[in-house]
Amino acid sequence: MRSVSLADRARLAAAAVSAVAAVAAAAMLFPVGASALELRIVDQGSRGPEDVYVTVVGQPGNYDVTGMANDTPKKLSEIPGQALTIEKLISGRIYISYGAGVKESVPFNSPIRFDWAELTVTPASSDVANLTAVDQFGIGMRLDTYGVSSEHLETVGDANSDTVFAALQQIPGGPQATVKDSGGNVLRVISPLHSDAYPDLSDYVRSMSGKTVVLHTAFFGAPFTTSKYSGTFAADGSIALSGTSNPPGAAPPTIALGGGGLIEDIYTGAHTPNNLEGAIRRDLLAGFSTGLWGGKYGNDALSFCSNPITTAQGSWCPNGFNKPAFGDARTGPSPFPTCEQYAAVINQYTDSYGNPYSDASKKVTVGLSQQVSGGAVKTLRLTILPDSGNAQPQASGNPSCGAASQAQAPARLRLNRSAKVKGRTVRVGSVRCSGPCGRVRAVAKRGHRVLARMFVKRTSRVRRLVLRLTRAGRRALTRAGRLKTVLNVWVRPSAGATKHMRRSLLLVGRAGR
Known about the structure:
By secondary structure, the chain is of the alpha+beta class. The protein has helices spanning 6-26, 161-168, 202-206, 259-268, 276-289, 341-349, 471-480; strands at residues 37-43, 52-57, 63-65, 74-75, 83-98, 114-121, 128-131, 136-137, 141-147, 152-157, 178-180, 186-190, 212-219, 225-232, 239-246, 254-257, 309-311, 314-316, 365-367, 377-384, 411-415, 419-422, 425-433, 439-446, 449-456, 462-469, 482-492, 499-508.
């Protein structure tokens, strides 16, 4: 199921207790069939139902979908009326794949093109469905809900796949995270959760050095709890948040986050347990992911929403950080990325989750509250969109929060104190880029003689420099055992100018045969 974040994650936990009681009471008023959700699958693509496969996945013991075995693919043409009846489906996924069926364990390097929607049918008033690109984007889809009289209720959707694919090719890391078939057709673009091709946000986090941030976090548990925490960033991006909660003691008085761990967690949403401390951590990470910290709204999180609430209980944003985010939150261009650009593109061209915090900045779910839980939803329609067309999401944003000159991917060269020869290779250090390094070429020379070299066509933001000795290099080291050389390294990103770095380098050892 999706990664629920901010207020929603805790609110759903609190709602579960009352939802169980409501369902039990309503069951006496409605027959069993009244709680069944109808899922209709509409194929608008060019494949045809014989070439489209459907797989339904849910928690064992909480799975009741007529005619579909759990995690077992079936052709769309084999589903009567291309509709399914769902009595119960907890943490469910509806996989759509082309040419062959997939299971939940399908790897992201699969030659099969696939994507999925997520939903929970309890039934309860808090049930929702959503599209997700937290892991990857592969197929454009749309979700619509309809009432008992077939009236349209809500919708969320994507732009056509070709539109999203093209936009993702324009950001650093997008081309390297793209999986294609043997014919060069795009199958999917993998997210930063599963690919290290994207720029890390270390420069952005460290740019907050000396600045103080203030968090006002609400946790919708039992009891409802609010908090106010603040802290000042150190030069390495670390921060110690200190504050209080109401009622007291719901979170530690000080929450320390190391710079390195914080930077890694922005993409993954890790180390955010479902309690008040976890919600505080999520608010901090979400502010970086969406480009809010250090932006036009200031560094008090209460200014990140359009409708803050202040009562005797405390202050908080009831609908998350819902002011325009990503590029819209920035005051101007920066020499480094100031948001998660993959999520920014997904935010602009889809109503899907682009990261675990997407529900904070726009609507990404449709409600599935049915008659039995006091709602009106009878049918959920999943539409498979054609790859090309003019489909657009309900809302869009500005993804322009990358480096002011993405073509000049800054590169830093780190050399070992002494480069020791091992066999016919020598490991001299590494090159680290703020975005994908692209092509990397390294040459160690003494005078006009090339002693060792390396060349790679495509690499991510960190590349170890392991040079292979030339014949002249092997001979020279065999005679001398130690050689002072000049190392030249060229880094050429996928788009833009090449950066050239030059350093002195000592080669130590004797070459093996």
